Request: fold
Amino acid sequence: MNFFNADNLLAHTAGRWLQRPDRPATLAGVGIDSRSDLAGKCFVAIKGEHHDGHDYLRQAVDAGADLLIVHRHPLERDLPPHVGVLQVDDTRAALGRLACAYRRQLRRTKVIAITGSAGKTTVKHLLDAALSTSMRGSAAPRSYNNDIGVPLTILRTDPQDEYLIVEIGANRPGEIDHLAAMAQPDVAVITMIGRGHLGGFGSLEIVAREKAALLRHMQSNPLAVVNADSPHLRRHIHTAESLVLFGQADDADLRLTDWGADEGNWRFEVNGRDRFRLGLPGKHNALNALAVVAVARRLGIADRRIDAALGQCEPVEMRMSCHRIGDIVVYNDAYNANPDSVIAAVNTFAELAADATRRVLVLGDMLELGEAGPQLHREIGQFIVDLDQGAPIDHVILVGPLAQHTAVPIRGVWPANRLTLLSEMNAKTAAATAGLLQPGDTVLLKGSRAVALEQVLDAIKRRHEGGDVVAGVQRGGQPRRETMTRAPGVLEPPTLTPDS
Reply:
């Protein structure tokens, strides 16, 4: 029997009919976006931060939806009689219950759940590439990693698929336990424990405990693939039946023993003998790839196929993706940021930009760090000062209210013309940032998603395509002399006490 039929959805959501469909229907799945193709699907009306699906029920029906799941009575009184309307107490909870029930139908599908403070999407991307060389399956689209994205990922899976890769995130305690119970993974991957979302967790110990909750909901004959370099995790992984540690620790089962580039091609070495190509730069991505090797091998993928898949992979959008615009190269890693991912990105950038005329960092605030935010931003400032001693950084542009803390160590040793502070990123400040760049610059964009640093990339493209100025050079003229060190919207140098 098709899982997606009206009576089955009624039973699994514990709902009640406001309008029973006047004819039996086999539904094609579930959707939550009234703008998408909902032909033959069930539309679940989710109330989000900015929009409420209950306001778009008519649009959902017009898009083809044959069943609506709501938690408040629809205002529309003239819905077609073939469209069922099912009322539940909470549509988000109902979506999760449907996913739990559907997960039990996926008997031949190996479910792989990935969590961690950073690297989840990259591991998902690399692992999907490796497994798809020999298996049929799918991975969560984009960053579908919360209580809406995870159930949607599960519900879109074909029961004939051999694998499903689920990404699981969390901002506060208890979220991973809930999502892991929904996913019931056969394989669990924990990429790393870092200082992300400390505002919701409070400490690294709590972060580790939360991520390790993934291991409590594994199926029979499970595999746990866990970062060996996160000491906070060690006390939480003893319950794993089958454990593979990866990283640089001496006791890692898959140990990173070498990485780098050979004639522009990135590669890494495992346990001093097995070498793999990798289409993504940086040590942090070599570590991510170790987890991929562990899972792919467990699922029977030959090393030669893993090597070919990893070597052909390209960066996910806004995760160290490279853009060449005229004479300027931009690495866009601005999907999100925490202290550990910023350090990894800047270190990788220093390698990639070693031959650039100038190296420019555009760093946005790292958000959701709670009370630790100011101190962690100062640590990033000191890291930049230290890095500059061996890998010079020519200009740093800091964006956001917390930028003043990052600036404190830098101001102590750098001349003023190497540092720019912006209060926020918007169209005006993005254009001003683009105006600071010169031909031959290589630029890194790194910050929390809400800072929207991708606007800088758009501004550089506009300057290049606009005809008046290209990469800081006037058409038909000499290079402009750029003396601006403070752009519109810039924060004035803060007055800080010594311990602030």
